[in-house]
Amino acid sequence: MRCRFSCCKTKDEMTTSQGSSEDSRTLKTIGWLSVGVGAVALGVFIGRELRNRYKFNRRTPYDFYAHSGDGSKGLDYGVGI
Questions:
Q1: Which of 31, 7, 30 is nearest to 17 (CA)?
Q2: Residues with Cβ < 8 Å from 10, sequence gap 6 or more?
Q3: What pLDDT shows up at residue 54?
Q4: 10 Å Cβ neighbour count for 29?
Q5: Mean pLDDT across the chain, nearest whole number?
Q6: How far apart are CA 75 and CA 48, in angstroms?
């Protein structure tokens, strides 16, 4: 007996098209997973860009000179009598 909805199938129809149904389900799952991974990658990229722009715009003039004496070799050789 067939139900009134077109999504329901009889047992005979389910057994004959079960192989193609599983292949279709697998391809749909892989497709949705790739869309999800792409969306996450895009979100991470856009978030990183927005954060870098925010950090760059929040700098003060003193930030340019914050590390002016770090790592210079002049302090190692010129200090002393």
A1: 7
A2: 1, 2
A3: 84
A4: 10
A5: 75
A6: 37
Would the pLDDT of 17 be above 60? Answer: no
How high is the pLDDT of residue 80?
Answer: 59
Strand ranges for the chain from DSSP E: none
Alpha-carbon gap, residue 57 to 51, rounded angstroms: 10
The confidence score (pLDDT) of residue 57 equals 75
Q: Which helix (H) or strand (E) holds 42?
A: helix 18-57
- The torsion of the CA quartet 45, 62, 71, 48, rounded to 10 degrees, works out to 0
Show the tokens assigned to 19: 């192989």
Both tokens assigned to 45: 């990229």
Q: Residue count of the chain, please give it.
A: 81
pLDDT of residue 49: 93
Is-contact 10 2, C-beta < 8 A? Answer: yes
